Amino acid sequence: MEKTDFKELLKNSFLTAEAGMNGESKSEFHQVRKASLEEFLSLRVPTVKDEEWKYTNITPITGRKFTTEAVAAPVGISELQKFFYNIDKYLNIVFVNGKLNHELSGDFSSLKGVTITTIKEAFTEKISAAETYFNKTADLKGNIFAALNTSFVAEGLFIHIGKNVAAEKPVRIIYVKKNAENLLVSPRNLIVAEQGAELDLIETYAGLDETSSFTNGVTEIYTAENASVSHILIQEENLNSYYINNVEVTQEGSSRYTSLNIALGSAIGRTNMSTRFTGPNSEGTLNGLFIAGGTQLIDNHTMIDHAMPHCQSHELYKGVLDGKARGVFNGKVMVRQDAQKTNAFQENKTILLSEEALIDTKPQLEIFADDVKCTHGATVGQLSEESLFYLKARGIGDQLARSILINAFADDLVDRMKFEDLRDYLEAKIAARLS
Q1: What is the pLDDT of residue 2?
Q2: Which of 16, 17, 238, 314 qualifies as a FRET site for 285, CA 20 to 30 Å off?
Q3: Which residue, 164, 432, 409, is CA-closest to 293?
Q4: pLDDT tens per residue across span 72-102
Q5: Closest by alpha carbon to 203, among 176, 167, 173?
């Protein structure tokens, strides 16, 4: 299929769905979708000739005939258990094939100081924060997959944390797919944390079977002054599926945003994650772990934009690659002219477990201010022979010694999370993935 057919097919899907909307087609929310479709159609599908997609060939995605029609699929709680579904400790919000499933989700109708609803409903109810912030992130403009997401977002999820409100429970968003062969799913999250607000957010993207589908997501997060958002993103799609996700964060003064992006699944998976400081004295942490084998391709692009002074950023991405897997890390830290007293740290570490595994790493600093402290670097290698010798000298066999070192390397970032039960779950997942 030609790349132009990819856009034409999706255009026709949009128009077919629109024809059945009746009065809804005139809604403000749908007008945003229509404008995004026009943007999507005006943009060129990226290829490996584009610098930002140099190492990621998305022809397997653009060459497929995806359907956008929602697929009804019964899902029981037992099927969610393997993805750490805990109804007591977490406020769960479950989407099945892109549709909010109220039966599997917790009750979020009467939370104190917290509003959780669909973006579509927020527009219907004229909630000002939704109308103010939805689809307003500058970095989404000119992004063909972000435009595609906005065009086909069915409901979306809107979370608003009020001024000086700390969410009582961590919010767990679970996106699962089932009976979803050739389905395009467009998850969309809008998170607004007002002044002094606090939120722990956990997202999971997963498949309940081995059907081949395409998840194309966007998450917009706004942290107002003195707000704090902790964000854990877990991608464990099946190995027949494709995954692209854009996470865009805007941080006002003295705010804190911390992310841990864990990528374990998908045939081709790419995450674009960025944060921009729009106020002084803010702190941002972008950490990530990617594990791939077989012929998987996992691509992480990050951007930290120091647009204001006295801000700090920390970034550590780790990768473990085996078989013929390929990893990509492209991380940019930009320090603008007025961003004096910036402190920025960036590092990428990757272990290659086979001769055919490959990592393309490109840490970057662009500095236009003079009173800053910035470091970056990348290391690529095999397991430390010295560490292996140390363990084997103490009677540990070669295979077990290697397993200990690999898991210790991978678990380093997971060990830092504060949720012990989620930490145990992820460490078991990682151990199984590396076995």
Answers
A1: 44
A2: 238
A3: 432
A4: 889 998 898 888 777 789 999 999 999 999 9
A5: 173
DSSP 64: S
Contacts of 288 (CB under 8 A, 6+ apart): 259, 260, 261, 262, 263, 271, 273, 300, 302, 316, 317, 318, 413
Task: Show the tokens assigned to 425.
Answer: 């779950």
Tell which residue, 332, 333, 140, has the closest CA to residue 220. Answer: 140
HEC assignment per residue over 114-153: EEEECHHHHHHCCCHHHHHHCCCCHHHCCCHHHHHHHHHC
DSSP 8-state symbol, 103? T
Which residues on adjacent β-strands are paired with residue 372? 342
Q: Are 379 and 350 contacting, i.e. CB atoms less than 8 angstroms apart?
A: yes
Q: What is the pTM of this model?
A: 0.95
| Angle, helices 144-152/28-42, rounded to nearest 10 degrees | 150
Q: Which two tokens stand for residue 302?
A: 């990050």
Among 68, 42, 36, residue whose Cα is nearest residue 147: 36
Strands 99-100 and 157-161: unpaired
pLDDT tens digits for 134-193?
Answer: 998 867 889 999 999 999 999 999 999 999 999 999 999 999 999 999 999 999 999 999
CB 303 within 8 A of CB 277: no
The pLDDT tens digits for 194-247 are: 999 999 999 999 999 999 999 999 999 999 999 999 999 999 999 999 999 999
**80: exposed, middle or buried (Cβ count in 10 Å: 0-12, 13-18, 19+):** buried
Give dist(CA 51, CA 85) in Å, integer.
39
| 3-state SS, one letter per residue, for 279-309 | CCCCEEEEEEEEEECCCCEEEEEEEEEECCC
Q: How far is CA 102 from CA 117, 187, 207, 291, in A?
A: 11, 16, 19, 33
Cα gap 107→81, rounded to integer Å = 19
